[in-house]
């Protein structure tokens, strides 16, 4: 089998973007993977530069598989070249030719993982913490024995939501739809619960139509067709209730999938996705917009604390700035220090894979050290897999920003 795959970039509408590359190497200097390993020669080398040598097609080898798809290269490019998107398609083309490993197919089914683990949470958590079992899994499946794993909670968020009694203020200022994502449904349930409680405290009736996975993990592992099916199903589910209501999420990665990646990577442009994408708001983005309009309840209790904060790649790729920092600093006594690092290394499922685990840990080390130096007890991050990585790497209790706001309001779950 040939080690090269030929990719027609015109098929993905990326040619105009690619031709703007001036070979400035900014993407190379900012790439978090290239700075810690020689296994990845850099985003320009495997992307725009390779394309120029081949006149309309790009030849890629196995080195491109070490790209984590963090999106930093696209974010920092002064010419607007979609470097990450070009490289993502090139890597997928290579995987399709060589065959996608069973491991990548399994770890992409996050809903299945959550549904299986939740009813047997104590047993599942014990197994994932058992080193001999993890060593067997590493050898058979290819998930590194030391990779961070989620903790099953024993109940799903939707199960809680069906039984909970809305707060008295709920519904006094309209409706919002809450999009929990897979991890928010099964593993980060408290984050979802506290998000709903904050929204209800602010007067919103929260609607939660039953919904499933956004397909991000599938897309990240090259399973584009399956991912498109997930996106299509999810947009139908989220549109099954109030089609004028904002869609609010505390899952930064899942929100980014609907706002950015489904269009930029999967090349989806359905009316349903355009509708949903236009109404999706990260919860910190949503609350900060209320503040900017003078509509946010700012009767916060004082919290004297310095919070190390890491902004996830997905959030930065969405181009919304750092709303969590501004929001948390509305609380008297809260001082937020941003990590300034491009990536924590986990990149969804990237850091779980045995051949990439050491790379992911090296990428994340500056963030781990930053947390230990700033406040080793507690840190803040917007996305679930990043929190798992930071908890394991730093030893700190890593929470979503909404938990700070929830406590500042004096709410009790």
Automatic annotation (TrEMBL):
Pfam families: CCG, Fer4_8. InterPro entries: 4Fe4S_Fe-S-bd, 4Fe4S_Fe_S_CS, Cys_rich_dom, G3P_DH_GlpC_su, Helical_ferredxn. One of its GO terms (molecular function) is glycerol-3-phosphate dehydrogenase (quinone) activity. Signal peptide: none annotated. Keywords: 4Fe-4S, Iron, Iron-sulfur, Metal-binding, Oxidoreductase, Repeat. It comes from the Bacteria. Its EC number is 1.1.5.3. Residues 12-42, 56-87 form the 4Fe-4S ferredoxin-type domain. This is Anaerobic glycerol-3-phosphate dehydrogenase subunit C. It comes from Schaalia naturae.
